[in-house]
Amino acid sequence: MDDLILVGRIARTHGIRGHVIVNPETDFADDRFVAGRVLHLESPGGSKRLVIESVRFHHGRPIVEFEGVDSIDDAEPLLGAELRMPEAELPPLPGGTFYRHDLVGCEVRHKDGQVVGRVTGVEGPMERSRLVVAGQRGELQVPMVAPICVSVDPAARVIVIDPPEGLLDLP
Questions:
Q1: Predicted pLDDT of residue 171
Q2: pLDDT tens-digit readout, 77-122
Q3: The pLDDT of residue 1 is above 50
């Protein structure tokens, strides 16, 4: 089976007809949340496939209606669940852009070769993304911009940075 990647988490119900508000975990929410898309719901209660019947966006968050989820009683057990899709369904990205899941786990090195830490997450929208890096001195946030991230090689699992003075000293 394909690797499943996280595209969102169900935040809360919306109305009484089974709609849910999703916190997107992708920079491409408009492409991931479309009518007819099959998503894999994963929760402590197990996993199942859900088909999006309709979707609309409010303040950047999708409000989703799934087939077979017709009431607030049907929707409440879905709260907090992760929504995933097969990685193979993702289109290729333009050069110089990366999927978040490709960056998580990469080793971050200073341009002088010193290991800074490992990427544990990526926060913020695409135009203001920050790498969350677990380092020896704690968690760091490194802006994902060309002057700082001088080399990004997800295949080799390495990101080389040239941080401005003081960035690595921040808590």
A1: 56
A2: 999 999 999 988 888 888 888 888 899 999 999 999 999 999 999 9
A3: no
Tell me the per-residue pLDDT of 55-78, one tens digit each, with 9 for 90 and over.
999 998 999 999 999 999 999 999
Question: Rounded to whole angstroms, how far apart are CA atoms 83 and 67?
Answer: 15
Nearest Cα to Cα of residue 141 among 165, 156, 163: 163
In whole angstroms, give the CA distance from residue 136 to residue 116: 7
CATH number for the domain formed by residue range(s) 100-169? 2.30.30.240
Domain limits, CATH 2.40.30.60, in the chain: 4-89
How far from each other are the two terminal CA atoms of the chain, in whole angstroms?
Answer: 40
Residue 101 backbone dihedrals phi, psi, to 5 degrees: -65, -20
Assigned CATH topology for domain 4-89: Elongation Factor Tu (Ef-tu); domain 3 (2.40.30)
> Could you tell me whether strands 130-135 and 138-143 are parallel, antiparallel, or unpaired per DSSP bridges?
antiparallel
Contacting residues for 15 by C-beta, under 8 A, at least 6 apart? 72
pLDDT in tens, 150-165: 999 999 999 999 999 8
Q: State residue 109 phi and psi, 5-degree precision.
A: -120, 145
